[in-house]
Amino acid sequence: MTNLCRAEHAVFLGTTHTAKRIADHMASFYENQQNARRKTKLLAFYFLCAVGLTVLAINLVLYYTLINSNNYITLKQWFTSGLGPLASLITLAVIAAGSIFKTLQIGSSGDKVAQMAGGVPLSPDTKDAKEQQLLNVVEEMALASGIKPPRIYILREESGINAFVAGLEANKTALAVTKGALDTLTRDELQGVIGHEFSHILNSDMRINVRMIGILAGILIVGQLGRILLQSSGGRTSNNKQNIAPLIGLGLFLIGSIGLFFGQIIKAALSRQREYLADASAVQFTRNPAGIGGALIKIRDAQNSSFLDTKRASELSHMCFGEVMEYKFNSLFATHPPLDLRIKAIDPRLASKLQTQPAGNASGTSASNAPPQASGFSGHAPQASSTIQAASTQGYTPSATQSTAPAAYIVPADVKQSVGQLTTEKIQLGGQIHQQLPSTLLEAAHNPEDACTLLYALLLASPQHSDKVNEALQQAFSASTLTKALQFRGQILAMPYALRLPLFDLSIPALRTLDPIQQKAFFQQVYQVINADQHYTLSECALMLLLETHLQPQKASQRTINSIRKVEADVITMLIALSYASQQARTERLAIFERELKILGIDYFGQDPALPSANTLREALARLKRLSPLLKKPLVDSAVDMVISDQKVYAAEFELLRAFCDMIDCPMPPVDPNLFAQ
Length: 678
Prior knowledge:
- The chain is an all-alpha fold.
- The chain has a domain at about 1-110 and about 205-300 and about 325-355.
- About 60% of the residues lie in helices and about 0% in strands.
- Strands 1-2-4-3 form a four-stranded mixed sheet.
- Strand 3 and strand 4 form a beta hairpin.
- The longest helix has about 40 residues, at about 245-285.
- The two termini are about 45 Å apart.
């Protein structure tokens, strides 16, 4: 991190040389994840220090309050008589209760935080041009990075220029943008701000930010209790010795102020450094310093700046793109570096450059306006099948894919390095993918009811579709739903295979809005669809597991696994599935499978392994998700080699690789679809 600290004050220009310099300072996705874990531990340490000082201060307040009420005891007697330990335990219980309550209140998806700030969900079918522009920018960047699009909220009562992301997992986040940002920023400036926020997602900064809200709430609750005591006594702090509540209330209020002081110091200590990195990342993503730089200049020069009017502004200060309030001791409490320093870190001559450029050309070409590459997404849906073994997917064993096609070449090293990373090329590719999706299917992905039907169509999207299947579907669906599903299916079959996973990704935010009853009915019909077509391919398996991962409640995070030895069987299960997805002959497939296991230090003496069931895959991927970030890297590298080493890469097998990486929290961006075998 030493180089990173030095880089904070470096001048980052929008040239190729500078872009490379920024990239050199960027840690890998896995290193950023590991650093985020360390920062979480650092946050816990700061919190414990603040709690210790708070407990000590409360003991002193209560002790001197007792002296004031003529119940004189020595300080030693206070701690040895049991009064001190009792006061400490009660204080710890109150702080813990405050932190736990706030943590449970805000949840894990980020939606509660956005709603707490006054956010209103953005309707995907909005007719507002600015809101549609925001939706397109977010979806293109999500497709480019390989993560599910965050649910978008608009802070309609906020005229300042600001934004934030919230959530504990990259694929379950909420993005809030102020009305002022929508009304004021150009598309390139908005893209720069969104790029800054996506950096926080990919670097796991937003996890620390959400944790910080919950943790600091425990410290602040002491001051809130003091305020309640003061208000209940009318604010009187007279010498009435029979009423010590006002004195205790005043003491707790003052202690709460100390807690607020420590809270701001903790926020500032953990936030400023990350803002420089996120700014640099936005420049790296877009290669357009004028984008994010222009947004910062508008904040600096705007009358309403980036301040928020919500009473929750203080709680959200460390999460936002810009400062949400003014601090009397700005250098000490501010959660963001000064705007002039942030602008100079991007380009010290940026302001003068923007002033001399003609109107409308103040920033570079938008990703969405980049010339599209030649069309030709290609790939093959899995064809071979096996008989369904049970009425529930718990017992299904997916069949391997079969296809014959000419070879194509994708560089394995490029794919490995792309995990959790955004680049200008990927953003342009995300825009092209977004543009190539049929408009009717894209509209369906934005509507909860139609998104369900779209998922049924994706599961049915195999050329094999018999009358028997139609009969089974007629019993499971209404005539209108079935008709629409088959229409969607026809469009899906007609489009390139490599567009299927992006279409699935864009449907997740709409599907998350289903209530528990609707979600239960949806999953029941998903299983009926899988039963109906009498095919259970790896592609269907991946879609079903992704749905469960991103829609159904997950168990509380378990302890991180820090040894590959503890998950050897799960590694074998994942690589077996990828092995079957490849189009290689048995001998070649087994040779690559055994080679990758050996690289990972795993000895395998079995024969040709059988294709794992959906339930086995589900459990294996859930455990692999718990691997420490630095242990995930060699696993993902081996998985990439499994798919790409034969230089015959099909869209279906590569998208299966992306799906598995998604389920272990290693988002893998798409590659140029023209490189797939056809």
